[in-house]
Amino acid sequence: MARASYDVAVVGAGIIGCGCALELAGGGRSVVVLESSGVASDTSCRAMGHVGVYDDSPAQFSLSRFGVECWNSLAPDLPPEVDYVRRGALWIAADESEMADVEAKLGRYRAAGVEAHVVDGRELRRMEPQLAPDLPGALWVPGDIVLDAAEATRFLADRARSLGAELRIPSRVRSLTEDGPRLDDGRVVRAEFTVLAAGWRAPELLPGLDIRPRKGHIAMLAPPAGFVHHQLSEVGYVRGSQPGVADVISFSLQPRSSGRCLLGATRQYVGPSTEVDPTVIRRLLERARRFVPAIGDVPVERTWTGLRPAGARGVPYIGPVADHPRWILAAAHEGIGITTAIATGRLVTSIVAGTPPAIPLEPFRPGPEPGPG
């Protein structure tokens, strides 16, 4: 039977909402998750699933490093379907000029205590024989992880439920009130705190919130066995993730335990459309051939798109909404939501509990713009 009221109502059952529900329930709070369609029904079921440390800003570095630590702490409990594998990542220089980016990245990682090593072209080809012979080197980060994002989200939801969280699906939230979320049927789900984890749809409930859907294309490839072994990304990938860059095609290739590989990554501001653009897929494959020439001979099994929730500041919003201290925003994670889901949940839990957070919250606090929807 549903409770009359809750400590926390979480709006959204993607990986961020489920990470928040898990941590809040684990902290002893009564929690209800409100979702209009299903667990992992949008962005979280369309992502590649790279869990790693990202260094395009100090704030993102801090949050993603914390996120990797959180996943590692949970790893012994993860079921096989989550497909959690520590493959390590290679951040590859496309030419000699980009080796300066590799060295700079090494300095940032080592300064923060993240294991990383520079490998030259010869070692790079030993690690990944399919890579182009003229690539000068890469940064090798052994601790990076690959997982199935949709299955990971379902695990977080199931674990939250086992700790007492209630999932109400389908429940479409129409607006936020000081007493809790108001549903389409007019009922208010009473809660002391409301966590808005609705991804790119968050502005529907907080008009003026500067989050936009950022479309990404993914191709699933069916290569021969052992085609690649590590998460592969070009070192310029991080630059392309900046919020002001409108149209990006960069190389990212991820092997999965199934034998398939996922190829990304593209970024476009084209509204909420999820239609696959064959021209973008062709450009993605062309970029990939610069790094893995034989990829042109690998069958493309299927393609799809997803919508990342991209904020204007380039870092997630985690914290109370201005003038509404009991509304907590957990959104705008763009491409790092899989990595930072549990970390975000722990930070939200510290806000609710009024305890010191594990990392400084100031870089992630929402601005004053949003108002009630």
Fill in the keyword field for this structure.
373 residues; alpha/beta; D-Amino Acid Oxidase, Chain A, domain 2; 8-stranded mixed β-sheet; 6-stranded mixed β-sheet; 26% helix; globular; disordered C terminus
Task: Provide a compact summary of the structure.
The protein is α/β, with parallel strands linked by helices. It folds into 2 domains: about 5-45 and about 150-210 and about 315-365, FAD/NAD(P)-binding domain (3-Layer(bba) Sandwich), CATH 3.50.50; about 90-140 and about 210-310, D-Amino Acid Oxidase, subunit A, domain 2 (D-Amino Acid Oxidase, Chain A, domain 2, 2-Layer Sandwich), CATH 3.30.9.10.
Verbal overview:
This protein has helices at about 15-25, 60-75, 100-110, 120-125, 150-160, 235-240, 280-290, 335-355, and strands at about 5-10, 30-35, 50, 90-95, 115-120, 135-140, 145, 165-170, 175, 180-185, 190-195, 210-220, 230-235, 245-255, 260-270, 300-310, 315-320, 325-330. Mean pLDDT is about 95; it is low at about 370-373. The strands form 4 sheets. It has an 8-stranded mixed beta sheet, sandwiched between helices. Strands 8-2-1-11-18-17 form a 6-stranded mixed beta sheet, covered by helices on one side. The radius of gyration is 20 Å and the shape is globular. The chain folds into 2 domains: about 5-45 and about 150-210 and about 315-365, 3-Layer(bba) Sandwich (FAD/NAD(P)-binding domain), CATH 3.50.50.60; about 90-140 and about 210-310, D-Amino Acid Oxidase, subunit A, domain 2 (D-Amino Acid Oxidase, Chain A, domain 2, 2-Layer Sandwich). With about 375 residues, the chain is α/β, with parallel strands linked by helices. It starts with 5 loop residues before the first strand and ends in a 20-residue tail after the last helix.
